[in-house]
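User: I need a structural model of LPXTG cell wall anchor domain-containing protein from Microbacterium paludicola for a docking pre-check later this week. Nothing fancy, just the predicted structure tokens so I can convert them on my end. Input:
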Amino acid sequence: MELEHPVRQVGQQQIAYGYGFEPGESVSATMYSVPQDLGTQIANADGEVVFTWAVDGEAVVGQHRVELVGVLSGAVDDTFQVVARSSLAATGADLGSLIPFGLLILIAGAALTIATRRDGVAAHDA
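Assistant: Understood. Predicted structure tokens for LPXTG cell wall anchor domain-containing protein:
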């Protein structure tokens, strides 16, 4: 079996891919440490199942194990980490809307500088 993501946060989606089961075999899935029943699937013609779920709010930060159990083939498992959501506050400001205004000021300043130099050169030549 394989898990789609090695690291997840509470509420994020995880996917378990199980293979090597008997075609038509009933396979149940559970996520541990606090048991979360992920349901039951019937293995397809290739002996494969796919379980998709959101990591439960009961999941604590740390390593968790997902176990797939076939009624004929037995159990397989894999692990992944649940990490805390970032609690850092967003800092800074969204300056994207100020970029066009800044460019306009820069162009106006350059034009004013060029015009002033031309007037100065013209007055000096006279």
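Before docking, keep this in mind: The chain has two domains: 2-83, 96-125.
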